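Researcher: Here's the sequence for the chain we discussed earlier.
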Amino acid sequence: MALTKEKKQALIGKFARSPSDTGSVEVQVALLTGRIQELTEHLQVHRKDFHSRRGLHMLVGKRRRLLQYLRRTDPRKYQQLLQELNIRGV
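Model: Thanks. This is the structure I predict for it:
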């Protein structure tokens, strides 16, 4: 259920502001989105895994808060990130 190292590096490389950036809001949202997608696939197979479902809800909430912060601080980057990750707005 965890992101593979290669997939994580690809997401960081795509959304990082600089080569050593791993903690910007864009990178955090991209990594959370990857984890959310994998957990969603897991839960489609294992419908009664309620512990993982709780974890999914927590990840979605964290991503929503980060997106709200990004929308407040830089609306242009917010819209661009939503389009690149193919997710709906907050």
